[in-house]
Design goal:
This protein has helices spanning 7-10, 15-33, 43-72, 77-93, 115-122, 128-149, 155-178. It is elongated, with a radius of gyration of 25 Å. By secondary structure, it is mainly alpha-helical. The longest helix is centred in the first third of the chain and has 30 residues, at 43-72.
Amino acid sequence: MPFPSSPRARSGPRRRSLLTVAPAVLLAAGCSAGSGGSGTGGSRPSAADRARARAARDSRALAERYDAVVAAHPKLAERLRPLRAEVVRHEKAFGGAPVASPSGSASPSPTGSASPPASPAAAVPAREKDALAELAAAEREIAGRRAEALLDAPGELARLLASVAAAGAAHAYLLAEAGR
């Protein structure tokens, strides 16, 4: 005659199921968290590094675009200075070398490539209102790109991307209001 099972034995997972699942959980945790330092393993850290580098490049290009607008429309310099300073801080937060402000030196930082500053300078609209609208559109585009990138980014980078995307959206709003 078999012994009746106690109600306590059936309330939780069985020992056998825990023994089968535990190695799989440990293996998954080891692969995702510990592969950052290994040579050819883990695509997660390299994807995070690529997202961080792209965000830094986007901030650099945006700072150069601000510089081009200020060069074409010097009257906007006072208005744009705080926004540009934030963009430079964003680049630094992502690990990039910030672009020097034109007011602090004769030209943008020599660490940047020669072709990007020429392109935004040539593309600056003649009217201040249009130049501000273009800056607002650039801020919105980059903020959207960062919001998409944060979905695949690991914790701290995702928080940084979210914060900087929100700041970019606020910049876009301020620029659009200034252009009205």
